[in-house]
Amino acid sequence: MERKEYEILYTIEDEYWWYVGLRDLVFSSIVKFRGNVRKDSRILDAGCGTGAVLEGLNDYGESYGIDVSDEAIRFCKVRRLRNVIKASITEIPCVNDFFNIVTSLDVLYHMQVEDDLTALKELYRVLKDRGILILNLPAYNFLRSRHDEAIHTRHRYLKSEVRKKVENTGFDIVKLTYRNSFLFAIFLITRLLEKLKKRRAVRSDLGLLPDFLNRFLVKILFFENRLLNKVNFPFGLSVFCVARKR
Fold first, then answer.
1. For the chain, is the Cβ count within 10 Å smaller at the N or the C terminus?
2. Could you give the CA distance from residue 63 to residue 57 in angstroms, rounded to a whole number?
3. Using CA atoms, how far apart are residues 194 and 97, in angstroms rounded to an integer?
4. Pairing, β 62-67 against β 42-46
5. Domains of the chain from N-terminus onward
6. Measured between alpha carbons, how far is 189 from 192 in angstroms, rounded to an integer?
7. Are 139 and 193 contacting, i.e. CB atoms less than 8 angstroms apart?
């Protein structure tokens, strides 16, 4: 991700609809699939970015974070987060069977993760038996845009790809769905119109929205998340997966 994008992310991610909705789904999934989460649980956010998810994970146990970016680590320190170190998801400096829960949100898709299977094997290694892995990944390569260029996207995933890779690593999938489905048509039209332009400035979609619009989008995602607790969606902007170590 471009360095300037980390500053934008840190500035807006506490309130920005996309991240608020994702955190809500992650935390509710921890409660649903992990059950009685004890305070002595250990949780890793693998690719913690500027730390908003990691900060929230403190409510569910002792949280740890790794990220390969110096900028990300710097902003985590601004948040005064502990247990954060610079490390790659493909080479986690941790003993086997250490964590009860691992989250990795929009990380495996990145250019710096050259081999996502190696990363998944590392996540499997550091999880305890019956531990929970939570993944979020961008969906569909036909949605690639200047946003992907700015955040250094290597690949966007199909749900079938995620299933194959996660199961081949040794996990049992307990939840696999697309998400951000209600807004899919709007984003698809936006991407198609963008591709018609001959010259495109490379920049991400991140930016402040009018408060009323941001709150409206948050409500849409919260409603969608409640539905996702009961059903899976056949399409969406992201692939969301919860898996358990055998």
1. C
2. 6
3. 45
4. parallel
5. 3-245 (3.40.50.150)
6. 5
7. no
